[in-house]
Amino acid sequence: MPGPSRARRAVLALLTSCAIGPALAETPLPPEVRLALARAQVPLEAISIVVQEAGSSATPRLSWQAQQPQNPASLFKLATTYAALDLLGPGYAWITPVWLKGRLRDGVLEGDLVIKGSGDPKLVPERLWLLLRRVQQLGVREIRGDIVLDRSAFAVPAGTPADFDGEPLKAYNVQPDALLLSHKALVYTFTPDAANGVARVGVEPALQGLQVDAQVPLSAGPCDDWRAVLKATPADPDRMRFAGTYPLSCGERSWPVAYADPGSFNARLLQAAWRELGGRLSGVVRDGSAPTVPPTFEVSSPALAELVRDINKFSNNVMAQQLFLTLGATQRGSGTVEASRAVLRDWLLSRLGERGEGIVVDNGSGLSRETRMSAEQLALLLQAAWRSPVMPEMIASLPLAGVDGTARRARSGGGRAHLKTGSLRDVAGIAGYALGPNGRRWIVVAIVQHANAGQTRPALDALVQWALADAPRDGPSR
Questions:
Q1: Does the bond joining 205 to the residue before it have cis omega, within 30 degrees of 0?
Q2: Fewer CB within 10 Å of terminal CB in the chain, N or C?
Q3: Domain boundaries, the chain
């Protein structure tokens, strides 16, 4: 008699046959995947899959529509981060030079403080505070001139954060900048104070001239769409009001918001940070050019190996874009989109050979409607990464399914799969490595392109579970 697992597979196969018809039930896809797709009302023609043993050139264990060009969404960050690790090295760091331009006497700088950006993806508030603290340690208490920002390392096309999907206040839409401070976003924190019937509101970082309501009334009820219940005014660059309430059942929550006026963000942040440190500024914060003489000091970013973890585990779009433009700046001497596309296209062809033909590179984050890459090409990329010297850094950067990052809610993997996730309005996908019980590591790639793609997470979970089972190859490929 068949064991429980075989019996379960037989039942699933029967249910799937009933749900999607006998013809399609003959496909090589595992029955659990077919059934989950049927429940999501997604046809089998909308998914592309490759499952292949890592380090093996043998026929894939499962291949379904693998050569079909698809929009990979954030899965494309795998190309950007692997290329950066390969071309720049895991220890690469961004250097931000700083000049005290003028005479310093009795704590007064008779001139300008100049900061030149090089594309550092992680000039977060605490690192900016350390930079300004270094200025004060050199004896500066008052700047009689201006704070000058040189942002010439990148030439970013004119556009707005609303260009992609009309959502300018979503943090994922923040645009790249050679001097990207605090990701041009604010994080509002709501901490319930039940005794006083309010939630205390905090904001980081502080911006000069931005007023924020210090509290919002608490309310009963479930913690559903709590952001809408707040009735906030994030589109006002000068005042954040909360005309609604905050559900007590939410506990403490944080809300990242892209600042409504990104053009003034750096100036407001630097003014507020300098004054919080007790410094005085007679002039303004403005764009300009750095001196040609050696800087007074330099600030170094964390190593690239650390930053790619932030990019891949949390699918950080603006950090990926910073990395993308850095490739153009370092490899072609031009921090432009065109140069960066050329670098990435050439690098992909060098790694994938003629099978890399047809890849469409738009940007480095995958936040695009134009990018195209097949499941087979993604699997080949992961095979190349597996054989490369930067394999440990690359795998460690991927979310651990069911544990952290964008894959923390996955119901498969149990900590045995490192999987990058990708999603857009009509795209869902996974790509990475799964460790089977027999010690074999499987490359798993799946991309769904369909209006119901957002409903296919159970199908992707089922595919990972099937891969983890170390089962024999199931039928022919297509």
A1: yes
A2: N
A3: 4-91+305-468, 94-301
Burial class (CB in 10 A: 0-12, 13-18, 19+), 439: exposed
- One-letter-per-residue 3-state SS of 452-467: CHHHCHHHHHHHHHHH
CA 400, 404, 409, 412: dihedral to nearest 10 degrees?
Answer: 20
> In Å, how far from its chain's centre is CA 3?
43
| pLDDT of 234 strictly over 50 | yes
Q: Strands, E, within 194-343: which ranges?
A: 198-204, 211-212, 215-219, 239-240, 246-247, 253-258, 280-281, 285-287, 297-300
Distances in Å between the Cα of 55 and the Cα atoms of 78, 99, 106, 133 are 18, 49, 64, 49
Q: What is the value of pTM for the model shown? A: 0.92
Identify each DSSP E strand in 296-416 by its residue range: 297-300
Which residues on adjacent β-strands are paired with residue 215?
Answer: 200
Q: Are strands 246-247 and 95-105 parallel, antiparallel or unpaired?
A: unpaired
Closest CA to 280 of 142, 165, 157, 389: 142
Q: Which residues contact 466 (CB under 8 A, 6 or more apart)?
A: 30, 32, 33, 51
CATH number for the region 94-301 comes to 3.50.80.20
Residue pLDDT, tens place only, 389-423: 999 999 999 999 999 999 999 988 788 999 999 99
